[in-house]
Design goal:
The strands form five sheets. A two-stranded antiparallel ribbon has the order 1-3. Strands 2-4 form a two-stranded antiparallel ribbon. It has a two-stranded antiparallel ribbon with strand order 5-7. The longest helix is centred in the first third of the chain and has 30 residues, at about 1-30. The chain is mainly alpha-helical. It has helices at about 1-30, 50-60, 70-80, 95-105, 120-130, 145-150, 175-195, 205-220, 225-240, 245-255, 265, 290-295, 320-330; strands at about 35, 40-45, 65, 85-90, 110-115, 135, 165-170, 175, 305-310, 315-320. It is elongated, with a radius of gyration of 31 Å. It contains 13 helices and ten strands. Helix 2 packs across helix 3 (about 70-80), helix 8 (about 205-220) packs across helix 12 (about 290-295) and helix 9 (about 225-240) packs across helix 12 (about 290-295).
Length: about 325
Amino acid sequence: MKKTVKIFSALLGLLVVAACVIAGGAWYWAKKQPVTMSAERIDYVVPAGSGPRAIARSMQQAGIDIQEDAFVWMARFSGLDTSLQAGAYEAVRGDTPWMVMERMSSGNMLQTRLTIPEGWTYQRIRDTLAANPQVRQTLGDVSDADLLQRFGVEAVHPEGLFYPDTYVFVPGTADVDIMRRGFQAQQELLEQLWADRDADLPLKSPYEALIMASIVERETGHSQDRARVAGVFMNRLRVGMPLQTDPTVIYGMGSAYDGRIRKRDLTTDTPWNTYTRTGLPPTPIASPGKASLMATLHPEKHNFYYFVSRGDGTSEFSANLAAHNRAVAKYILKR
């Protein structure tokens, strides 16, 4: 009996030693042994719904030589297997398996930026997203009407509905998700600013404000002139005078615009030609930023009905046609 106990104790001791060796080896592999990588830095994507084994395979395919079974056991025993987040990540030479896994558990993802400047058209926004290799493309065959339907929009035209801003996103983010952020940001801002608008504006709805703000955006090269330019257009609306703004003509010309506006372009009627039609055009002509929306909803009060560019980004404003013609002769015709 004593001999059996001794043998059992010896075996138990060997098992404990073996367990300690295994545990020590696992600890060393997880927290001390750098992962072998094919490059100094490797980006990889964890698809939504991926478990530890699928994640390990994604890393292997990207060039990160991580041991699949060991990674799975590490994730499960640490309890982090249920908190590994989908997204785009970067592994750096010298990272241990634990560092890699902890980064995914905390959601410490790669991020990139995409800037949509004020005054861009909807089509230019779509083209920019489509050309960005870090944006996941899902809208290739989606029509404008279908896109708006996804966002629950009753409007039939997407122009102006997306807020120009710098968007920070994780590589691999879908184009529709970035578009949704832009749409929601523009709607929230417009609703907020419309509620605080000046009284007695000749605008019937937030959408009309958006249309006017897009014109102000395209007409203003000098930020300090925005509210004054908006005031000119408000004065014209009040008296039924055509807005006569070139950017609306250009928008209506579409692909026919070659960088110049000719007299025939000003007299060729389109829904956006504010020389041939009074009132606002049917849709915005670009994506206005907050400054142009603010100027539109809080325009400067004055008696100006005309303005012309001085050629330096600022404008010369006039109260009557005679004064405007003199300004045109001075700044445009150089007389």
